[in-house]
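Hey, resending since the last one bounced:
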Amino acid sequence: MAGDTRFTWEYDDGRAKLLALYQKGKDKQWDAAKRVDWSLPVDPGNPLMMPEQSIPIYGSKSYEKMKNDPAEMARLGQHLTSWQFSQFLHGEQGAMICASRIAESVPDLDAKFYAATQVMDEARHAETFARLLQEKIGLLYPINAHLKVLLEQTLSDRRWDMPYLGMQVLIEGVALAAFGLLRDLTPVALPKQILAYVMQDEARHVAFGRLALRDYYAELTDAERAEREEFVVEGCYLLRDRFLADEVWETLGYDVAECTEFVNRSPLTQTYRTLLFTRIVPCVKDIGLWGPKVQKAYADMGVTSFANSDLTALMKSDEDLAERIDEEKRLAARRDEVAEVIRFGAGS
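The structure tokens again:
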């Protein structure tokens, strides 16, 4: 890591919106050991109970060879889900380090306050994903090379705003979209709970990045803004290209070249990649990094249409869904209590 440690001895009131977000960050802390129902079952061979059509190599020669082999299909399902959630885990550890870096280097005290709450959030997310992988899926993968490069670039830049831009806007933005897709598609209660609870926190983190960067970027010179836009473009291509799962095909002994080519051409992959930018594109536009180079890159990726999405509404929806899951769990627990009383009364 690089950069300066900045102390501030001015304890004024700070920015109202950021302090309100800090208060919300304190109020919404939760314990993964208590909030998540770890007793819920997960099938290691198909942890998300997704249809076969969701497999990235569905229809390929490699897939056709083993589609009638239940053991190999279960092995593939375990490895794919492990690879995906392992990247979530590595990203959360990276976010924890980036948030601590922000607390160290950002010049404003209100931002330091909020970043401190985010460090705890990210530690909890890493704890939660690690437990899911270890106890329920039973397999972990190392960090993907593209994600590793982006994390290294984010942390090695000396400018205090770059951890915000790399983590809060790009990595957190694509993570939110990926979490949301899986949360909405899986019928399995445990991963659905975990993804919803993590997304509730991440929605605040993206809002933090927007608040902190919007005013600062408005004051940049053209040259400074061009440097940030170049970072955004490179980072978005790295994020897009990290979803090929080369490590899975290699580990399973499949034809890596054939699988990679198929995944690249797959309509499913194209749609998935596009949807991953639903949070990033409007956020990048909102903070003022909307020059020709960024717009050209987003046109090339086919994601420009997300520029006018209502990011605030998306984030509120993410937060509300987590609360609804908690309410459903409370109602289910109450129904079980009533049923137990009725059984006790009938027995007496």
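Residues 16-347 form a domain with the Ribonucleotide Reductase, subunit A fold (CATH 1.10.620.20).

Sorry for the duplicate.
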